[in-house]
Fold these 3 entries.
Entry 1:
Amino acid sequence: MVNTLYLPELREMLAADDSQELREFCSAIHPAGTADFMDGLTPEESWRVLQHADPVVRGEIFHYFDHDKQLAILSSQDRQEIAELVANLAADDRVDLLNELDPAIVQELLALTPSEVRRDILRLSAYPEGTAGAVMTTDIVKLSEALTVRQGLAEVSRQAEDVETIYYLYIVDESDRLRGLVSARQLVSAMGKPDTTLGELMETELVTVDADATQEEAAQKVARYDLLAIPVVDEQHRLLGIITYDDVIDVVREEATRDAQQSAAVAPLDSGYLTTGLLELGWKRGVWLALLFFGGLLTAAALRTYDERLVMWPWLIFFIPLVISSGGNSGNQSATLVITALTTGDIKMADWLRVVRREFVVGLMLGGLLGCCGLAVFWLMGPETRTLQTAAVLPLTLVLVVLCGALTGSILPLIFQRLGLDPALMSNPFVAGIVDILGLLIYMNVALLLLSQVR
Amino acid sequence: MVNTLYLPELREMLAADDSQELREFCSAIHPAGTADFMDGLTPEESWRVLQHADPVVRGEIFHYFDHDKQLAILSSQDRQEIAELVANLAADDRVDLLNELDPAIVQELLALTPSEVRRDILRLSAYPEGTAGAVMTTDIVKLSEALTVRQGLAEVSRQAEDVETIYYLYIVDESDRLRGLVSARQLVSAMGKPDTTLGELMETELVTVDADATQEEAAQKVARYDLLAIPVVDEQHRLLGIITYDDVIDVVREEATRDAQQSAAVAPLDSGYLTTGLLELGWKRGVWLALLFFGGLLTAAALRTYDERLVMWPWLIFFIPLVISSGGNSGNQSATLVITALTTGDIKMADWLRVVRREFVVGLMLGGLLGCCGLAVFWLMGPETRTLQTAAVLPLTLVLVVLCGALTGSILPLIFQRLGLDPALMSNPFVAGIVDILGLLIYMNVALLLLSQVR
């Protein structure tokens, strides 16, 4: 909100080409703040402002632009200038961006970047999206264990500007195999003994992640061990790069969004809600909606089978939505609890029997609760002529349906996990869809059983 | 899995009281790994193993125990030893743990802890749970801006063992007001000019968070600005503590779990799925289930109103579950997309009109799609005698119901956000509940309108 207040002034500076003020604007505050202030500018205008920043700061501010503005600038502005910008971006960010650009433009840009940057980009983009290799950065301090603390400090001080983090120094042998790690904390603590070698200081029990492991595995390790960064290695234990805490925060948030979308039967979006095209949005929802619709046909088929009975006991119809939504809600609760517990590592596959037993007990409790509600409702809204049998239909159905929901909702995600599939796929509304049909069958059969005795 | 293989050996060491081996076990690998290896030990046994670790490592290993083991040890073991352990835990962790202990035990422990630790605990526990103040830590390096780089390095080197992070040094004035920040990176880069003062070096444009802001606000700022830590200040801009990146990762994961549970109509659990009591689990689910059940009564009331018509056109009954689940699914998709976009900051309240317009278009597209499916289904499963009017009921209903779901699902979370309530509350199954009723009313009225002409 506040940010837009400055837009006219910014535009004025641009119109007057006021180099001095624009330079000041670019360097006065944190690059993320500067990027926020430029929110309302077009990509074209933003790029003109950035001309007045020095190259490193230009890259930093650009990093905080929103995704679409970044892509618009990369694909429309002077190739030579863009190639310089790309060389100044963090190694992991630039690969992500280039992956989304028109390949023809990427070729032009690559031809203009220094060979080391180009090699780095090609190496990183070889890893499939979602792997540790694809999110790692290669800007790291690698040192030999023969160096002393004094030499190490000097080396860090020299490289400080170019690397992603100076807080962990990685010790490698001559063929780049990871030998150990010295934290900046250890280095600074050891300043009193400047001739100690890094080999003496380093920790050798390191938590690492393979380049082809999933990004979630890397994120879980960083979270579990409270790391600032985790080294990424190949099968020969060669150090390829690191994943830093800030990328882990992004991975965790991305995952949460993806899981939420998946659990609502939306194929995960590649970009933001507002920037996803309407056709793509329609497609990613329509596929699942249609699938669920055809699954739902089974409910229509089931009801058709019990047609005559429903016409004979029309009050059974009133409670159809109530019965199936109760089962669906209970199943949805169980599925979500089990899925989140699997995600946080709270439960493991070995716990499956305990989970199912717990859901059985809780399902009975909840079913009992809704059964009592059901009895009251029958008294209020049921038919005029009440018998023990007619009164028992709704309560008994609700107990069974809620129990069935709790069991289905807990078992399906466990089965998916066991099969190596994402358990989040088995969240509502798929569970709800399955429980809908089971619930209807339970309802109709309970009614058949109890009411056939009445006639 | 692997971890349990070592349990017999650990137990053997304990039985033999093999001090040497146990000490080695405690110090050989990362404390998180050590804690993993003790997974299968009882709290009592784990505590006996920890006796052989030195106090700082003991605190570190304890930090990685699961929550219940931590509480069991704190409340059952020798008070004096526990008080020493507590003094060695991170300032933010120990407050969280003590908050869950029996207050009588906490009093005993506080009496045994050094006065500075006690004061710190009391200060931190004054902040309500979920605020920035409650998650911050007070173990930080505070320096005066008059110090030189050389003095700063010496001071950092001296304090390195005691503080949570040495990577940011906070510069405060004599009354503790935050003046600026020097990163370890800057300090190390400036080693060549050891007489520069920290005041010259420090950055003064700092991103801070108020102690009574929510922990999510702090997490969002850390994520946005890629910070290692964010300073927490009071209304006089005095530096109270910091929140570090590892706590932010925890907050983001906690939030994701909480949101998922809430969106499945489960009141968020305080602890893990397996450790939550069955009664608590039943209660946290039962309340919502009963609430949704009574909301669902409206569907029964609606159906009762249209009783006669349903008996006359029994094929209308078959499609009741299909119609309401289509509306619910579409509403659920919209609600989840809008809620996650609000959480990630992808859309803001100012975008509401754009969101609603988009949902209108997508809703029409999806409704059209399901409408076509509905026409096919009517042909397959509908009544024998088909007229234009009867054939139009299901398709027209589906278009309207899906559109209604998309609009309801997107507008309700926006309204909740506007009212200052958590939009995640308006996720499925509440949206589904509301759309169920609207869907039924649409279905019955469309049928009434079209079929009254047939008779």
Note: DSSP finds 23 helices and six strands in chain B.
Entry 2:
Amino acid sequence: MEGTYSYQQLYQFAKNIFLQIGCNDANAETATKVLLSADLRGVDSHGIARLVGYVRLWEAERINANPNISIVHETPSTATVDGDKGLGLVVAPAAMQIAIDKAKNVGSGWVSVKNSNHFGIAGYHAMMALDNDMIGIAMTNASALVAPTFSSEKLLGTNPIAVAIPSGNEAPFVSDFATTTAANGKLEILQRKNLDTPNGWVQTKEGFPSNNANELKNGGALLPLGSDRDRSSHKGYNLGAIVDIFSAVLSGANYGPWVPPFPAYVPMPEGMPGEGIGHFFGAMRIDAFRPASEFKLHMDKWIHRFKTAKTVEDHQRVLIPGEPEAEFEIERKANGIPLHESVVADLTELGKKFDTPFN
Amino acid sequence: MEGTYSYQQLYQFAKNIFLQIGCNDANAETATKVLLSADLRGVDSHGIARLVGYVRLWEAERINANPNISIVHETPSTATVDGDKGLGLVVAPAAMQIAIDKAKNVGSGWVSVKNSNHFGIAGYHAMMALDNDMIGIAMTNASALVAPTFSSEKLLGTNPIAVAIPSGNEAPFVSDFATTTAANGKLEILQRKNLDTPNGWVQTKEGFPSNNANELKNGGALLPLGSDRDRSSHKGYNLGAIVDIFSAVLSGANYGPWVPPFPAYVPMPEGMPGEGIGHFFGAMRIDAFRPASEFKLHMDKWIHRFKTAKTVEDHQRVLIPGEPEAEFEIERKANGIPLHESVVADLTELGKKFDTPFN
């Protein structure tokens, strides 16, 4: 049944599960922290609800619990990293740290990653830059659920992009979004409630407009940001393509329709051209461009101006990217994280399997 | 009256005009080449049709014909450039060249520019990277025409992003788009034809949906990519904001509603926090990640797979970013560039003023 759980409770449980599948203590801690950052920030689809999915990938022998994450090629400002089939939750922070270290040395760092798996929320990795007074960038490809403009085939993942930008007294600017009109998690919410989607989220197997929240199960596809050609869906398609190329063609991971699926029961694509899934990370030191104190004053001015803009009737105010998530984080750290009954059931079963009771 | 003109004809005319406003020969050549690359690629709104606009900015003493473009701050992989009030058409290629040179040395180069003006099409600058086997990135802010999600005020420009990626035998991948549902040039076409816009392009002064192609003149606004909250306009708003911050908050240019307008007759915003408009450029050497030959094989495979995807009924095929523009370029180099009668009239008048007959 539905319930609300403290961060500490969920942390201990998830960490125990990661230990059970063979992660060492440091890897189990990192994976847990990244995974639960989604629950804290209100991105429920990418948090502990996915723990079962990661375990299934491990059962399918697609996850290496203690990967040897290595740099296979580098210059002073770039690196290509082999994730050695590790959990993306572990590979991604290690790769982002390499980007940050390079930025410390030469102003910026850019890391493309192959042979990884799903990395949780992109925002977590981008935000690692903030404490270093750097701008952070994180993106990843994912298995194909999205049809490019004019295509009836699914060729791209929801391929998110996150950008985190430091500020002064204001909360930092944290943008983190799928390059589709709607992320898959939003469809799942409508499915549970038996509701139709708004126009422009999905198309049928043949490529016709649909409002059926279950359309993906019928062979349909998600639509790129922009929805249709009249509203510039080619721009969303371009964005998703750029993420795919930076993450996978640059690193040697799989791309386009060949990206391995997250659900372990879905068969792997045939003729895969690379290794695992791909990510891309960037870090730029603010003071590689101008003094950080100066930048932060102007960022605060930027944020303040947007926050106080005149709004459309009925709307409270213009939101700054990352604000709703930061509010979730405060609220959920204080009052706990609500879990849907199906998630509680999954975790309970998982706990039994690994002799690690949930609750 | 309407007519079709050879590239050489337009090149000579535009170069002469730039010489007349005091550009030295090298600057006049660069400005002309960048400006006309828009006409060649079919982006008519950003080409020679804007020559009059640049001249008016010069008349208003907002343009320095021979700027002293200088690096004011740098690290091995980054630089901040002061455009010295130059034509963006001249400042941008110089700044992109700095990014490319840095990439040659340390793998990647990233340049934020202040004190510049409009730089033509973003794609031109990004494509400078291609001949160097580099990925090129170019973006710019622009005067505020766009209302963020929930805002009735215009706070962002159409803030385009261009990304150019080398390929092998296939044409390169060149994405270049405004972060709005529709660029202003598309509205102008509808205005001339007295047609309504599709849903999701513009809103009224109060922030209500509209289909009036003249809505901007009534105090209305363009909408961010995504159109409305149901179709994730906050993602287009985020993208436009990121372009604004990378281009201007990082460099010390004006941002948000304070970006100087392109039309010289529009008064400058009050209380401007920076200098001129801002751009941001990036260059990444392919072989800073993996051997270029390997990358190009996979890029060709990527492009081929997308090109040959099954399409939605009635659609020829899935387009690769930059393909339509490359086709325009071949066609227009061979058969000339068609100009609208109002553009011909503007250029004829401009020619008279500067004793440089058009035609």
Note: Chain A touches chain B through 87 residues (CB under 8 Å).
Entry 3:
Amino acid sequence: MKTVVIGIGLIGGSMAKDLRRSGFATEITGVENLGEHAAEALRLGIADRMAPLGEAVSSADLVIVTTPVDVMLELLPEVLDRISPHATVTDMGSVKRRLTEAVRNHPRRRNYVPAHPMAGTENSGPSAAMEDLFRGKIAIVCDQEMSGPQHLALAEKMFHALGMNIAYMTSDEQDHSTAFVSHLPHAAAYALANAVLAKEERQIIFDLASGGFNSTVRLAKSSCDMWHPIFEQNCDYVVESLNVYIKHLEQFRDAIRDRESCRLADLILNANRIRSVLEGENHQFIKNEETFVKLYTK
Amino acid sequence: MKTVVIGIGLIGGSMAKDLRRSGFATEITGVENLGEHAAEALRLGIADRMAPLGEAVSSADLVIVTTPVDVMLELLPEVLDRISPHATVTDMGSVKRRLTEAVRNHPRRRNYVPAHPMAGTENSGPSAAMEDLFRGKIAIVCDQEMSGPQHLALAEKMFHALGMNIAYMTSDEQDHSTAFVSHLPHAAAYALANAVLAKEERQIIFDLASGGFNSTVRLAKSSCDMWHPIFEQNCDYVVESLNVYIKHLEQFRDAIRDRESCRLADLILNANRIRSVLEGENHQFIKNEETFVKLYTK
């Protein structure tokens, strides 16, 4: 499988490593705008070669776009213009409505499978790429009826090669759920970092950070290039999620301020339920080595 | 050293394990209100024996109070009433002003060293106790001039036996800094859990949680018994920290909503500074195996 990865960073690089190791990709060509990242990807053996977009894409069996989502908006139509008729295109962007709207009427729309892997770290660039980043995680595939069956099948095979499970949603459902479960935690971490940096000295933050701060604020280290356009493209749902979050913070603050002891306990105990949710109690999801396909019903 | 640990849970149990292992404690007596925890502490070998408060305390060299902070308010005066004149008392509570005020005029006040270790996990009970929980972390010692020198020295020796570094602050400084660096992240996590539980189905949260949600919300699993009285006792500073956080979240939301692209980038890049702060760049703190004592200057 001749595979092209556009944007060789944390996500693209990690995919390249595992797709090669699993035998899914026999030849990996990287397309990378940043010279430094391109050189690093070659040095680390993540890509076999680097090439300009047009040259790389025209002979590919599979093109994976893993750039920031603002760059995707520009690149995806061009990629679809330039692929051969049999090729499959997928992307790993965290926002899906804007992107799928941008190519809704493209003559090669059925070659394209919009996707989003729920995996990552707060680091970026080819040096952050790691094996098994995706294993056991969920890949969201959007609007699957809009993709040709052979292209959908190839994208599914790719995710299975990465050890992922697949969830199917509409672009709109994915953008809403991802706003709450991924974009909101990032916004919350950025704002927490800003609040604490505004009020406490560096020395004190460093010394006291083990009191729970470290894990809560980890995502605030995440790259601006990646996250700035995500917030912009998923504006409506991110603003909605922030409003819901602020409302819950205000409830929590009011219960403390107004010394509503029972109310405060209720809020903490309700939040404690997240333990059983995250541990998958009473969960229909069968965790095993076999990957499988699952449909959300709303 | 005959050591009494009042409250054998995550913190008390972890201290007992390491104090025994290091040779600092030769005999550990547990005092525990919950029968289940008492039995578990004996079964796990965390305590040599369990005893009622009065009996345990009267023959102790060192008494460590690790109960929730509301229980401490009741117990600490009684402990000071009952100790022998040479004994040292310390506590591991996360809030210090209320507690130190409660024993300000106690005739044994100089036997007492108020302290707070910046270490923990989201789990609780003796089964959550673990070795090396405290190694390399900071112990805050408050109002050290109010403690007798021999009692201060013993508490310092105990923290060094745990592998901890020590920071000295007033109770007021500790409550303010801890509000921002520990209590606020817990409140933020509780509210995040509540917001997401209110808006998304369990199944979707479970499946998508690897997108950064897991680490940001981890602290929302923390025990209500422990955290409810912390928020109540540190009410003023926790409310202040929540107000600052909400203000920063509103700024973040407004930048997204109003499509202020440069402003949003500034907020993200400012938050990114937390990486260098947490990694201790340009930091005066000398990290090595030797523990040492350091004074904050404000």
Note: The CA atoms of residues 142 and 173 of chain A lie 9 Å apart.
